[in-house]
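Subject: Interface between my chains keeps coming out wrong

I've been trying for a while to get a sensible model of this assembly. When I model each chain on its own everything looks fine, but I need the whole thing in one frame so I can look at the contacts. Pasting all components below, labels as-is. Any help appreciated, I'm running out of ideas.
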Amino acid sequence: MSTVHGDHAAPLPTTMQAVVCHGPRDYRLEEIPVPTPGPGEVLVEVEAVGICASDLKCYHGAAKFWGDANRSPWAQTGIVPGHEFTGRVVQLDDAARAHWGIEVGHRVVAEQIVPCWDCRYCDTGSYHMCARHDMFGFRGHSGAMASYLVFPVEALVHRISADLPPAHAAFAEPLSCALHAVERAQITFADVVVVAGCGPIGLGMIAGAAAKFPAEIVALDLDDRKLDLARRTGATRTINIGSEDAVALVREMTGGYGADVYLEGTGAPAAVLQGLNLLRKLGRFVEYSVFKEDVTVDWSIISDDKELDVLGAHLGPHCWPAAIRLIESGRLPMDDICTHQLPLADFQRGLDLVASGAESIKVSLIPG
Ligand SMILES: NC(=O)c1ccc[n+]([C@@H]2O[C@H](COP(=O)([O-])OP(=O)(O)OC[C@H]3O[C@@H](n4cnc5c(N)ncnc54)[C@H](O)[C@@H]3O)[C@@H](O)[C@H]2O)c1
Ligand SMILES: [Zn+2]
Ligand SMILES: [Zn+2]
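Reply #2:
Try treating it as a single job with all components included. I did that and got this:
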């Protein structure tokens, strides 16, 4: 069965394969209706969707997504996961054309957050902290682990080169996030910047920090393969924290003072104390991780010992154009960052690959 939708000439299928979230550890591959875009909305055929550590935490039932004694659930069931995606415009009306400047056939990405445009955060440019906090693939709007998805009128849509492999284009999401963390750090030319973690986020932080041209970019990880990739992404020095003393080595390279900036992108509680110890007095600590558990440290390091600036960072507001430029520039080793592309039906294997982290950096699903 197929039908012709709106002003789109080619017939579209009426149903599609999709992963549907029914709750923690209950994601199912189902045949569901192809969504129909309403006025001002866009129907997009998905070309690639990345799986990220946040997808995995949602799948595993983390409190940030499903609530606990201190917070109500944020994620919703009945939603198609997938918030890092790229695809082709297949159907839109004149209002959508005018709103985003896009056309049938254009390759596009959309920011993961779908802002309300009506709260005090949206009103003042901080749309990434939108009070409603709808997000593709988690809450309010189905994501891209399906053949098609709809961009609602509130979405932030960007064009991206059709010449890129789809998995590379979908990397605009994690890269924009990493660039926001870099912006929070306000890196200067003289800084020694330490990046903890060389997964997709850490590698993006290294790429972004490199664009700021500081004195040194020191990458930390436990995996030599990832540290090698960190060098090719812009790190000037790498330290394997499994076999080397990162605190001692960074002190040595900074005349005993410590690093100016620490960008935390590991998801590992131990990396927090590591950063507090690595930094010099008056240093800047940027926290990007989402932790599975509470993290305990001596906060007097932040106050009495070092008078640190501790900065949180969330999503990639205003950083998408730069992330897209960076991917399109060809400066990043994208083939080595995008390690796995699997069919949609293998989503469970994809989640397992991300969980183990041993073989993969960025795992993507390719519907179709
Ligand atoms: N704040 C946000 O908006 C946001 C968005 C996306 C992802 N995240 C979070 O960012 C974090 C990183 O994401 P990712 O996809 O790159 O994760 P990842 O698991 O792929 O990479 C983490 C890396 O850190 C390394 N590592 C572990 N302990 C370390 C330590 N003590 N020092 C140095 N390296 C260490 C691991 O070996 C791994 O290579 C996750 O916690 C994720 O949930 C946050
Ligand atoms: Zn993500
Ligand atoms: Zn809002």
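Reply #3:
Confirming on my end. The chain has 13 helices and 20 strands.
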